[in-house]
């Protein structure tokens, strides 16, 4: 059932377009990396601020509010380039354990940011327990590291 | 010059640590992964500073404050990029030396460094003038836009090194082989 969806995706015009020229995939892949830098940069800026490592004299509420705006831009870039990349090599991904690791981590990451982290951080950070803020930051960095690293490893195996 | 570079690359490729890096599946791939992950720290922080100059992020925080506070994490990022980059070159020296994309990447890196250097002096002089403005003056915006564009070029050409489109010995036009510095086999 699931495999047939991946086969359909690869045979779709999007999948054919991504495979037709080797340069198409490479360019989309490079833009995907730019999105990664933006998403990862805003995650690190927010989380290292919550951990009191950087920008200590900028209010953490300002950093997470501004960081989240550009996090969303990064996420859109990654999704809009990630789907065509998947279409180009869908059946390969279906059999790749790193792909599934990444997808599960990505789902956890998106749910974590939009249902837990962001709603909580919209409150005045002075009213939140410091331990809560720090745990939130550590969890966020861990999950996005896993998404990015397992993503890179899709290409290393088979 | 190209044959001297190739000579050095060939010498390097015969060292045992080069062979070791090249042949170690996990070592090589983790260095590569670290190189890519560190983009988040280097390019990520740089992008935030540039977006501030363009008035698109942290408009209510002084520009010099954002630039100064993110300077250290950004430089840590660039240092890690540099170290892992040297290791990646060490693992595959001959092919990389004759890679068109690697050569373009180095040129873009030098251009980005000059741009950053010129901009640094301009920014230091900003304190007390446009520092608190939501949008920086034209010159700062041009430098920020240029910085973003150059680094996107660095990322793109860096990723293209892995592809064999214009490898020496392939069916390339003469100017491509010239730009890639292909040395004819003796």
TrEMBL record, chain A:
InterPro entries, alphabetized: DUF6644
Claim: Transmembrane helix is one of the keywords in the record: yes
Keyword Transmembrane helix in annotation: yes
Ranges of residues in domain DUF6644: 5-157
Transmembrane residue ranges: 23-45, 73-91, 97-114, 135-155
Entry coiled-coil feature ranges: none
UniProt entry keywords in alphabetical sequence: Membrane, Transmembrane, Transmembrane helix
Protein name: DUF6644 domain-containing protein
Lineage, uppermost ranks: Bacteria, Pseudomonadati, Pseudomonadota, Gammaproteobacteria, Steroidobacterales
Automatic annotation (TrEMBL), chain B:
Classification via Pfam families: DUF6644
Keywords: Membrane, Transmembrane, Transmembrane helix
TM annotation in the entry: 40-61, 73-94, 100-119, 140-162
Start and end residues of each DUF6644 domain: 32-163
Source superkingdom: Bacteria
Protein's name in the database: Membrane protein
Species of provenance: Steroidobacter agaridevorans
């Amino acid at each position: 059932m699931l495999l047939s969806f991946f086969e359909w995706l690869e045979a779709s015009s999007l999948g054919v377009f991504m495979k037709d020229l080797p340069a198409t995939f490479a360019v989309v892949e490079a833009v995907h990396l730019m999105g990664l830098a933006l998403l990862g940069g805003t995650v690190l800026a927010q989380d290292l601020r919550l951990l009191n490592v950087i920008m200590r004299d900028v209010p953490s509420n300002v950093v997470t509010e501004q960081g989240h705006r550009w996090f969303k831009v990064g996420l859109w870039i990654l999704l809009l380039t990630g789907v065509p990349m998947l279409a180009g090599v869908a059946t390969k991904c279906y059999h790749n354990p790193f792909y599934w690791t990444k997808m599960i981590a990505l789902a956890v990451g998106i749910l974590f940011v939009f249902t837990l982290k962001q709603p909580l951080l919209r409150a005045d950070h002075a009213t939140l327990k410091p331990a809560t803020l720090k745990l939130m930051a550590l969890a966020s960095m861990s999950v996005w590291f896993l998404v990015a690293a397992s993503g890179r490893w899709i290409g290393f195996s088979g | 010059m190209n044959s001297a570079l190739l000579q050095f690359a060939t010498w390097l490729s015969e060292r045992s640590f080069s062979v070791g890096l090249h042949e170690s599946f996990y070592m090589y791939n983790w260095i590569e992964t670290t190189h890519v992950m560190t983009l988040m720290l280097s390019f990520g922080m740089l992008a935030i500073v540039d977006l501030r100059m363009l008035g698109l992020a942290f408009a209510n925080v002084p520009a010099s404050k954002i630039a100064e506070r993110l300077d250290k994490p950004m430089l840590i990022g660039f240092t890690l990029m540099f170290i892992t980059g040297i290791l990646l070159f060490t693992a595959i020296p001959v092919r990389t030396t004759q890679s068109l994309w690697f050569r373009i990447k180095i040129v873009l890196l030098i251009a980005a460094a000059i741009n950053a250097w010129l901009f640094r002096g301009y920014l230091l002089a900003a304190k007390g003038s446009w520092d608190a403005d939501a949008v920086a003056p034209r010159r700062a915006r041009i430098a920020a836009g240029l910085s973003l564009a150059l680094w996107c070029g660095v990322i793109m050409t860096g990723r293209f090194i892995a592809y064999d489109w214009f490898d020496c010995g392939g069916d390339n036009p003469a100017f491509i082989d010239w730009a890639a510095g292909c040395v004819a086999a003796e």
